[in-house]
Amino acid sequence: MTIQDDYMFKLVMRSKHICKTIIEKILKIKLTDIRYIDEEKTVKPQYESKGVRLDVYVEGSGEIFEIEMQVRKPDGGELSKRVRYYQAMIDSERLAAGQKYKTLPTTYIIFICPFDPFDLSRHIYTFRNLCVEDSGLELNDKTTKVFVNSTGTADDVAPDVKAFLDYVNGVLSDDAFVREIDDEIERVKQIEQERVGYMTYAMKIEEEREEAENKLARLIAFLLDKGDVEEAKQAAKDIDKRQQLYVQYGIS
């Protein structure tokens, strides 16, 4: 297992110093401290909808940081829309009924990717909401989305950040922070409890995958019985449509 492994990434990010340093390096900020809100936080809205499982969910001094290791490159604009959905779910959970909008915290959603999500060779792509007519005017909604590309070739990051990104790609250097991460990975690999935990986690994911496949199969069979061939085709390829039909026909 390497840092790209979803489970290993979560284990390594349990180290407060490693997690805090990665945030500081990527965002070019300094944090006094961070607090873990929940381990592998699952965010679900009150209404019937698709929840999200967050990899690393921590809080600074009034800021929320959500960090994901995204190994697979999705098709089309799926990654951008996934970030949009994550932001919506985080906001809906943080904004309890009756509270004012001004209580929403500053949020940073960071996706670390061993691929270039926008094919422009940059190491870091940072997005905020700007005015189309005047790019100098920012909406100031306190939300930032950052995509980190470990395969970038542009000269746009500091050497220590480049060393970390090279490590994501499997290249071990003499950088002190990279060595700290590598030592932590070797340490947790030796812990029997974590090895058993990984096996349990892998089994859980496999069970969830099988359950999702069975649920989709039941939906498609139901639609075909009704003669809704086009709906069945759309459900097979469109996750959002699938979720809508699950709710519509009460399939769980």
Question: Count the helices. How many?
Answer: 8
Q: Supply Rg.
A: 20 Å
Number of strands: 8
| Spatial order of strands in the largest sheet | 1-4-5-6-8-7
Helical coverage, percent range: 40-55%
- Measured by DSSP, the beta-strand proportion falls in 15-25%
Name the average pLDDT: 87
Spans of at least 5 consecutive residues whose pLDDT stays below 50 are: 45-49
Keywords:
single chain, 252 residues, alpha/beta, two-stranded antiparallel sheet
Which SSEs are present, and which pair or pack?
Layout: H1 6-12, H2 16-27, E1 35-39, E2 42-43, E3 52-53, E4 56-59, E5 63-69, H3 78-94, E6 106-113, E7 124-127, E8 143-149, H4 159-168, H5 176-189, H6 192-226, H7 229-237, H8 239-249
Parallel strand pairs: 5-6, 6-8
Antiparallel strand pairs: 1-4, 2-3, 4-5, 7-8
Walkthrough of the structure:
- By secondary structure, the chain is an alpha/beta fold.
- It has 2 domains: 6-190, no CATH class; 196-249, no CATH class.
- It contains 8 helices and 8 strands.
- The strands form 2 sheets. A 6-stranded mixed β-sheet has the order 1-4-5-6-8-7, sandwiched between helices. It has a two-stranded antiparallel sheet with strand order 2-3.
- Helix 6 (192-226) runs antiparallel to helix 7 (229-237) and helix 7 (229-237) crosses helix 8 (239-249).
- The longest helix has 35 residues, at 192-226.
- The radius of gyration is 20 Å and the shape is globular.
- It starts with 5 loop residues before the first helix and ends with a helix.
